[in-house]
Amino acid sequence: MRKILIFLFFFLWSISLEATNIVGNYLRSFLYLQKKDFENAYKELKKVERLDPSSSYLHLKLGLVLFHLKKFPEAEKEFEKAKELDPDNLDISATLILFYAATKEQKKLEEEYQYFLEKAHKAQPHNIRISEYLGQFYFYKKMPREAIKIYNTIIKQKPDYSEGYYWLGYLYEEIGERKKAIRMWKKTLKLDPNHADALNSLGYIYAEEGIKLNEAEKLVKRALEKDPQNGAYLDSLGWVYFKKKNYKKAEEYLLKAAKTIKDPVVYEHLGDLYVVLKRWKKAVDFYKKGLGISSLRISSQKRLEEKIKKYEGKIEGVKKKSK
Description:
82% of the residues lie in helices and 0% in strands. The protein has helices at residues 2-34, 38-51, 56-68, 72-85, 90-102, 106-123, 128-140, 144-157, 162-174, 178-191, 196-209, 213-226, 231-243, 247-260, 264-276, 280-291, 298-322. The protein is elongated. It starts with a helix and ends with a helix. 33% of the residues are buried.
């Protein structure tokens, strides 16, 4: 019994001594940090690592010190080690986000931001702000189906949230489910009759479908009352007039839109207008403008290339006839 007590005494004494050393090293490192003496702060933290290698907090601090020393690869390793030890710690993830932003590593930044938002959403599923950040991130990453799931959870929690229905409409349109998109935008306008983006979106879709064109015109005009210089709204009204065969008005609004925004859809609409007016060269010029936009989708690129080829052929035909 006596031997056990002696062993226990020395064991507890050794633990307390180790703990005292850790605290002492931490305190000295903080003093060095206050003086911006990062080299010595790093040395003190490395002493702690020998005594407490599995501390996520320690590796986070080591990463921050290494960052100040501009040793970025080593700092990243420490941050990743901290995350590995404590994967649910959002402070570590937030630090990595800031680190990747500072070092301009876009791919890693986006991956970490997604990790952060998904963890935060899982931890706080009823926090609408976090859910919306995640939904918007999925939209940015061209993951519309994932974004739809998030927005559906949002409107279940907040059934009167007009912005949630608007985004669901936009996302359904992205995946080709137009009937659902129309339903969502109608719901948006029921909750908020002056929602300019929903007014424009619904009016534009009616024009695309060639239906309810008088209503489409009214909807887009109401959107323009809210934002008269909005290029997307001007384009929508021009497209409504195009569908109504009012080509003079269509040209007026589409050209206004083209002066406001550089958008392949606007340029394609102008090209289509000049095709109807048999002004082939002008049509091809606008199609080529659309083709020069870097954010152009592959499907739009192919469509524009086909139109350019077709109407350049028309131009050649006219030239041959005139000879």
